[in-house]
Amino acid sequence: MKDKVVFITGARGGLGTFITQHFLDAGATVIGASRRISKNDFPHRSFHALPVNFTKSSEVNTVFGSVVAQFGRLDALIHILGGFAGGQTVDDTDDATWEQMRDLNLTSAFYVLRAAIPHLRKSGNGRIVAIGSLAAAEAHANLGAYVTFKSALATLVKTVALEHKDAGLTANIVLPGTMDTPANRKAMPSADFSKWLQPKDVADLVLWLAGEHAGHVSGAAIPIDGPA
Protein backbone atom coordinates (compact mmCIF):
# COMPACT_ATOMS: atom_id res chain seq x y z
CA MET A 1 0.00 0.00 0.00
CA LYS A 2 3.02 2.29 -0.21
CA ASP A 3 2.13 5.65 -1.82
CA LYS A 4 -1.60 4.77 -1.76
CA VAL A 5 -4.13 7.23 -0.35
CA VAL A 6 -6.84 5.41 1.58
CA PHE A 7 -10.03 6.89 3.05
CA ILE A 8 -11.56 4.93 5.94
CA THR A 9 -14.99 5.68 7.36
CA GLY A 10 -15.71 4.59 10.92
CA ALA A 11 -11.96 4.51 11.51
CA ARG A 12 -12.23 4.86 15.28
CA GLY A 13 -14.65 1.99 15.99
CA GLY A 14 -13.96 -1.52 17.26
CA LEU A 15 -13.22 -2.97 13.81
CA GLY A 16 -12.15 0.37 12.38
CA THR A 17 -9.21 0.61 14.76
CA PHE A 18 -7.79 -2.71 13.52
CA ILE A 19 -8.32 -1.88 9.85
CA THR A 20 -6.86 1.61 10.14
CA GLN A 21 -3.75 0.29 11.88
CA HIS A 22 -3.37 -2.45 9.24
CA PHE A 23 -3.28 0.11 6.43
CA LEU A 24 -0.85 2.33 8.30
CA ASP A 25 1.44 -0.66 8.92
CA ALA A 26 1.26 -1.49 5.20
CA GLY A 27 2.59 1.96 4.27
CA ALA A 28 -0.59 3.73 3.17
CA THR A 29 -1.48 7.35 3.73
CA VAL A 30 -4.69 7.01 5.72
CA ILE A 31 -7.46 9.56 6.09
CA GLY A 32 -9.44 8.24 9.04
CA ALA A 33 -12.92 9.67 9.37
CA SER A 34 -15.52 9.26 12.10
CA ARG A 35 -18.00 11.52 13.84
CA ARG A 36 -15.40 11.98 16.60
CA ILE A 37 -11.75 11.35 15.82
CA SER A 38 -8.41 13.06 16.32
CA LYS A 39 -4.77 12.70 15.32
CA ASN A 40 -4.05 11.31 18.78
CA ASP A 41 -6.17 8.23 18.07
CA PHE A 42 -3.46 6.94 15.72
CA PRO A 43 -0.09 8.57 16.47
CA HIS A 44 1.43 7.83 13.06
CA ARG A 45 2.93 10.31 10.62
CA SER A 46 0.81 8.93 7.74
CA PHE A 47 -2.50 9.24 9.61
CA HIS A 48 -4.81 12.20 9.08
CA ALA A 49 -8.00 12.57 11.14
CA LEU A 50 -11.23 14.03 9.78
CA PRO A 51 -14.35 14.40 11.94
CA VAL A 52 -17.31 13.88 9.59
CA ASN A 53 -21.05 13.41 9.93
CA PHE A 54 -21.68 10.97 7.10
CA THR A 55 -25.45 11.41 7.22
CA LYS A 56 -25.04 14.92 5.75
CA SER A 57 -24.50 14.79 1.98
CA SER A 58 -23.06 18.30 1.67
CA GLU A 59 -20.50 17.56 4.38
CA VAL A 60 -19.46 14.32 2.68
CA ASN A 61 -19.03 16.05 -0.69
CA THR A 62 -16.89 18.75 0.86
CA VAL A 63 -14.67 16.25 2.67
CA PHE A 64 -13.77 14.25 -0.44
CA GLY A 65 -13.06 17.40 -2.39
CA SER A 66 -10.69 18.61 0.31
CA VAL A 67 -8.94 15.22 0.56
CA VAL A 68 -8.16 15.10 -3.15
CA ALA A 69 -7.09 18.74 -3.13
CA GLN A 70 -4.63 18.00 -0.32
CA PHE A 71 -3.28 14.60 -1.38
CA GLY A 72 -3.78 14.77 -5.14
CA ARG A 73 -5.51 11.41 -5.46
CA LEU A 74 -7.70 8.76 -3.86
CA ASP A 75 -6.85 5.08 -4.31
CA ALA A 76 -9.11 3.21 -1.92
CA LEU A 77 -12.28 3.68 0.08
CA ILE A 78 -12.88 1.44 3.08
CA HIS A 79 -16.43 1.94 4.33
CA ILE A 80 -16.80 0.55 7.85
CA LEU A 81 -19.37 2.95 9.26
CA GLY A 82 -22.61 1.32 10.39
CA GLY A 83 -24.87 0.74 13.33
CA PHE A 84 -26.90 -1.98 15.03
CA ALA A 85 -30.33 -2.08 16.63
CA GLY A 86 -32.49 -5.10 17.29
CA GLY A 87 -34.99 -6.74 19.58
CA GLN A 88 -38.15 -5.48 17.87
CA THR A 89 -40.54 -7.14 15.47
CA VAL A 90 -41.32 -5.19 12.31
CA ASP A 91 -44.69 -4.08 13.67
CA ASP A 92 -43.04 -2.86 16.88
CA THR A 93 -40.19 -0.99 15.15
CA ASP A 94 -40.56 2.74 15.68
CA ASP A 95 -39.71 5.45 13.18
CA ALA A 96 -36.57 6.51 15.03
CA THR A 97 -35.02 3.01 14.89
CA TRP A 98 -35.93 2.56 11.23
CA GLU A 99 -34.46 5.92 10.28
CA GLN A 100 -31.31 5.39 12.34
CA MET A 101 -30.61 2.03 10.69
CA ARG A 102 -31.32 3.51 7.26
CA ASP A 103 -29.04 6.50 7.78
CA LEU A 104 -26.11 4.62 9.37
CA ASN A 105 -26.15 1.50 7.21
CA LEU A 106 -27.34 2.67 3.79
CA THR A 107 -27.79 6.40 3.25
CA SER A 108 -24.34 7.25 4.55
CA ALA A 109 -22.82 4.63 2.24
CA PHE A 110 -24.66 6.11 -0.72
CA TYR A 111 -23.34 9.60 0.07
CA VAL A 112 -19.79 8.29 0.48
CA LEU A 113 -19.81 6.20 -2.69
CA ARG A 114 -21.31 8.98 -4.78
CA ALA A 115 -18.64 11.43 -3.61
CA ALA A 116 -15.68 9.04 -3.80
CA ILE A 117 -16.26 7.19 -7.07
CA PRO A 118 -15.27 10.00 -9.50
CA HIS A 119 -11.90 10.28 -7.72
CA LEU A 120 -11.40 6.51 -7.46
CA ARG A 121 -12.00 6.09 -11.19
CA LYS A 122 -9.05 8.37 -11.89
CA SER A 123 -6.77 6.08 -9.89
CA GLY A 124 -6.83 3.44 -12.65
CA ASN A 125 -7.12 0.60 -10.13
CA GLY A 126 -9.33 2.08 -7.42
CA ARG A 127 -10.65 -0.11 -4.64
CA ILE A 128 -13.87 -0.02 -2.63
CA VAL A 129 -14.33 -2.37 0.31
CA ALA A 130 -17.43 -2.10 2.48
CA ILE A 131 -18.25 -3.89 5.71
CA GLY A 132 -21.66 -5.53 5.83
CA SER A 133 -22.95 -8.27 8.10
CA LEU A 134 -23.17 -12.04 7.87
CA ALA A 135 -26.46 -11.80 9.77
CA ALA A 136 -27.92 -9.74 6.93
CA ALA A 137 -27.28 -12.48 4.37
CA GLU A 138 -30.75 -13.78 5.23
CA ALA A 139 -33.84 -12.70 7.15
CA HIS A 140 -33.73 -12.68 10.96
CA ALA A 141 -36.65 -12.21 13.32
CA ASN A 142 -36.46 -9.07 15.47
CA LEU A 143 -33.72 -7.51 13.32
CA GLY A 144 -35.90 -6.20 10.51
CA ALA A 145 -34.53 -2.68 10.19
CA TYR A 146 -30.90 -3.78 10.56
CA VAL A 147 -30.94 -6.64 8.06
CA THR A 148 -33.01 -4.67 5.54
CA PHE A 149 -30.48 -1.88 5.19
CA LYS A 150 -27.38 -4.08 5.50
CA SER A 151 -28.79 -6.25 2.71
CA ALA A 152 -29.44 -3.15 0.62
CA LEU A 153 -25.85 -2.05 1.23
CA ALA A 154 -24.59 -5.27 -0.35
CA THR A 155 -26.76 -4.68 -3.41
CA LEU A 156 -25.51 -1.10 -3.67
CA VAL A 157 -21.86 -2.19 -3.59
CA LYS A 158 -22.44 -4.91 -6.20
CA THR A 159 -24.14 -2.34 -8.43
CA VAL A 160 -21.14 -0.03 -8.17
CA ALA A 161 -18.89 -2.93 -9.21
CA LEU A 162 -20.92 -3.43 -12.39
CA GLU A 163 -21.09 0.25 -13.24
CA HIS A 164 -17.37 0.99 -12.94
CA LYS A 165 -15.47 -2.10 -14.08
CA ASP A 166 -14.48 -0.17 -17.23
CA ALA A 167 -12.18 1.97 -15.06
CA GLY A 168 -10.48 -0.92 -13.28
CA LEU A 169 -12.39 0.01 -10.13
CA THR A 170 -13.36 -2.93 -7.91
CA ALA A 171 -16.07 -2.92 -5.26
CA ASN A 172 -16.61 -5.69 -2.74
CA ILE A 173 -18.38 -6.17 0.57
CA VAL A 174 -17.15 -8.26 3.50
CA LEU A 175 -19.78 -9.98 5.66
CA PRO A 176 -18.36 -10.66 9.13
CA GLY A 177 -19.99 -12.81 11.78
CA THR A 178 -19.97 -11.73 15.42
CA MET A 179 -16.59 -10.16 16.17
CA ASP A 180 -14.63 -10.26 19.40
CA THR A 181 -14.72 -6.57 20.24
CA PRO A 182 -15.03 -4.87 23.64
CA ALA A 183 -18.49 -3.59 22.73
CA ASN A 184 -19.75 -7.08 21.83
CA ARG A 185 -18.27 -8.60 24.97
CA LYS A 186 -20.04 -5.97 27.05
CA ALA A 187 -23.35 -6.53 25.22
CA MET A 188 -23.16 -10.35 25.43
CA PRO A 189 -21.11 -11.18 28.57
CA SER A 190 -22.32 -14.78 28.78
CA ALA A 191 -21.39 -15.71 25.20
CA ASP A 192 -18.58 -18.08 24.25
CA PHE A 193 -15.97 -15.58 23.01
CA SER A 194 -13.82 -18.39 21.59
CA LYS A 195 -16.40 -18.84 18.82
CA TRP A 196 -16.22 -15.23 17.74
CA LEU A 197 -14.39 -13.81 14.77
CA GLN A 198 -11.15 -11.94 15.45
CA PRO A 199 -11.15 -8.38 14.03
CA LYS A 200 -7.59 -8.91 12.80
CA ASP A 201 -8.82 -11.60 10.41
CA VAL A 202 -11.33 -9.18 8.92
CA ALA A 203 -8.64 -6.51 8.64
CA ASP A 204 -6.38 -8.96 6.79
CA LEU A 205 -9.12 -9.67 4.25
CA VAL A 206 -9.94 -6.00 3.75
CA LEU A 207 -6.29 -5.13 3.22
CA TRP A 208 -5.93 -7.85 0.59
CA LEU A 209 -9.08 -6.74 -1.26
CA ALA A 210 -7.68 -3.20 -1.38
CA GLY A 211 -4.36 -4.35 -2.82
CA GLU A 212 -3.06 -4.75 -6.35
CA HIS A 213 -3.41 -8.55 -6.37
CA ALA A 214 -7.20 -8.39 -5.88
CA GLY A 215 -7.96 -6.69 -9.18
CA HIS A 216 -9.78 -9.80 -10.44
CA VAL A 217 -12.24 -9.80 -7.52
CA SER A 218 -15.19 -7.43 -7.81
CA GLY A 219 -18.88 -7.49 -7.01
CA ALA A 220 -18.34 -10.13 -4.33
CA ALA A 221 -20.07 -10.47 -0.97
CA ILE A 222 -17.54 -12.41 1.08
CA PRO A 223 -18.62 -14.12 4.30
CA ILE A 224 -16.10 -14.52 7.12
CA ASP A 225 -16.82 -16.05 10.52
CA GLY A 226 -15.09 -17.38 13.60
CA PRO A 227 -14.21 -21.00 14.47
CA ALA A 228 -16.99 -23.55 14.04
Overall description:
- There is one protein chain.
- The protein is an alpha/beta fold and 228 residues long.
- The protein has one domain: 3-Layer(aba) Sandwich (Rossmann fold), CATH 3.40.50.720.
- Helices cover 41% and strands 16% of the residues.
- The chain has helices spanning 14-25, 57-71, 95-123, 144-163, 182-187, 199-209, and strands at residues 5-9, 29-34, 47-51, 76-79, 127-131, 170-176, 221-224.
- The chain has a seven-stranded parallel sheet with strand order 3-2-1-4-5-6-7, sandwiched between helices.
- β1, α1 (14-25) and β2 (29-34) form a beta-alpha-beta unit.
- α1 (14-25) packs across α6 (199-209) and α2 (57-71) runs parallel beside α3.
- The longest helix is centred in the middle third of the chain and has 29 residues, at 95-123.
- The protein is globular and about 45 Å long.
- The protein starts with a strand and ends with a strand.
Task: Label this structure with key terms.
seven-stranded parallel sheet, alpha/beta, 228 residues, Rossmann fold, 7 strands
Helix content: 40-55%
Just give the CATH class: Alpha Beta
Q: What is the number of domains?
A: 1
Q: Tell me the overall shape.
A: globular
Share in β-strands? 15-25%
End-to-end distance: 32 Å
What are the secondary-structure elements, in order, as H or E?
EHEEHEHEHEHHE
CATH homologous superfamily assignment: NAD(P)-binding Rossmann-like Domain
Described by strand count, sense and barrel closure, the largest sheet is: 7 strands, parallel
Name the strands of the widest sheet in spatial order. Answer: 3-2-1-4-5-6-7
Point out poorly predicted stretches. none
Give the mean pLDDT. Answer: 93
CATH architecture: 3-Layer(aba) Sandwich
SS class: alpha/beta
Number of beta-strand segments = 7
Q: State Rg.
A: 17 Å
**Number of helical segments?**
6
CATH topology: Rossmann fold
